[in-house]
Specification:
It is a single chain. This protein has eleven helices and four strands. By secondary structure, it is α+β, with helices and mostly antiparallel strands. The protein has a four-stranded antiparallel β-sheet. Helix 1 crosses helix 9, helix 2 packs antiparallel against helix 7 and helix 9 packs across helix 10. The longest helix is centred in the middle third of the chain and has 47 residues. It starts with a helix and ends with a helix.
């Protein structure tokens, strides 16, 4: 008996969908726009995360050592830093490598090269470039280094730490990362609310066109669930069709923009990202479409029954 009712509800939902052709088309188009916006946010987030990741990789805290520092003392500090949970990676640059890098950067400056030659010795010390897992963690790493200096453990080998010179840039980058995450969440909530509102009204239009049928169903004693069921199924169909079409639309769009995003933003090709994450991308749109269609239809039916 239960399965018979379920089968009838599903069949009625399909009948409603095809019978209300123009209303169904309008609802599907609206949901496509919403799902397309949500999908665009997913791509935008991937591009933004890739761009921010590249920027974060260029930000670090550098520890400069005195020219007479022993390598064993430097590596002792390096081991301590690697034990910190905030540290992502540490690059050791020897005195010789520091000099080579300096000469390479200033190879077009004859005055600097000549000055080095006249000096006759390497004026540069070794360097540790420290990268944190999160931008906000650089301060705690700098504090650890300051505490080490105050304790006197590495005071004889460290020349300077450049965190405080780069602090403004690091803080601004941290604020940008947090702001972009909050913006993405806010836009998603707004788009979902708009979709619920618009889909709710279009489904109400479909319900209004079936008001006489609903009235008859009430008279014969049909339950609220049996009355609302076909419209919820209809809403779910809207979501399923919209998610399939939206996912398909992103294929040619991502293919067309793939090289452009890779060249402009550097690092991510959205076509490759789309192909790699196709199943996950579709399931997200599929789930959102079904939820939007079902909830908006259910709310619309409940409100109509109360009127």
């Amino acid at each position: 008996m239960f399965f018979t009712k379920v089968r009838r509800v599903i069949k009625a939902g399909f009948v409603n969908f095809w019978r209300n052709g123009w209303v169904s088309l309008a609802t599907v188009l609206i949901m496509i726009i919403t799902l397309f916006s949500i999908g665009s946010l997913i791509f935008a987030k991937a591009i933004l995360n890739s761009t921010l990741s590249q920027i974060q990789d260029k930000v670090d805290v550098s520890v400069y050592f005195k020219t007479d520092s022993l390598e064993e003392d430097i590596f002792a500090l390096k081991i301590k830093l690697e034990g910190l949970g905030e540290v992502k990676s540490i690059e050791y640059i020897s005195r010789e490598q520091s000099l080579e890098n300096f000469i390479e950067r200033h190879k077009d400056n004859a005055l600097i090269i000549q000055s080095l030659e006249e000096l006759g010795s390497n004026p540069l010390g070794a360097v540790l470039n420290i990268k944190a897992k999160e931008t906000s963690q650089y301060e705690s790493i700098a504090k650890f280094l300051d505490d080490s200096l105050k304790a006197g453990g590495e005071q004889s080998v460290i020349d300077k730490i450049n965190y405080y010179q780069n602090r403004i840039v690091i803080d601004r980058l941290g604020k940008i990362v947090d702001s972009t995450k909050n913006l993405g969440v806010s836009l998603s909530i707004i788009l979902i609310f708009i979709s619920l509102l618009v889909t709710f009204n279009t489904v109400r239009l479909a319900i209004y066109s079936s008001r006489e049928e609903i009235g008859v169903m009430r008279l014969v004693g049909a339950s609220g669930k049996f009355i609302s069921g076909p419209f919820v199924i209809e809403g779910i169909m809207h979501g399923i069709i919209a998610s399939i079409i939206t996912t398909a639309l992103f294929y040619p769009l991502s293919y067309w923009l793939g090289k452009s995003t890779e060249n402009f933003f550097g690092g991510i090709n959205i076509y490759q990202y789309y192909i790699t994450n196709l199943v996950q991308f579709f399931l997200i749109l599929f789930g959102v479409g079904i939820i939007l269609g079902a909830i908006s239809s259910f709310i619309a039916v409940r409100r109509y029954i109360k009127i």
